[in-house]
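Human: My hope is that you can spare some time for a protein that puzzles me. I am handing you a single protein, as its sequence and its fold in token form. Could you go through the record with me and say what the backbone is doing? Take your time, and here it is.
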Amino acid sequence: MKIGELAERTGLAPSRIRFYEGIGLLKVERQPNGYRTYPPQAVLVLELIATAQQAGFSLDEIRTLLPPDLARWEHGSLIETLRSKVQDIEALERRLAQSKAHLVALLAQIEAKPEEIDCATNAGRVLSWIRSGELESPALATGDVTTLRKASRRRSGRTG
């Protein structure tokens, strides 16, 4: 099939298809007139590429994942690669949860500014809190934001 038909069947721009071809993810044959001719399995390959990208695989990872011939896909290797990607995503989720907890705790500290101090003084108060190591507290590690906000209000003299 020609590139226009492949683009229509996959919803991809011809430039994207040529890009995948150029980086070796998609096989193509050239006719004597220079036109590209794609095999029927090109639709499946492009769908696999799109699905893998949505799952978080880089193009380099996809290149190593896709066999030269889809009929020779190694089941065990595929399972191993997918499990590894799940572990990568779980590690990223943990890092993101910790980053979120740090930001929420920092926000709670900033919001707990006593009325009688200005922003510059509050910034010093918050920096002292960070230096004290409370940013790494067990409540923060578990994401217990309510406990953190209450503790912050108690330290600032506010209630609620």
Observations:
- Helices lie at 3-10, 14-22, 41-54, 59-65, 75-111, 119-131, 138-141, 145-156.
- DSSP finds eight helices and two strands in the chain.
- The chain has a mean pLDDT of 85.
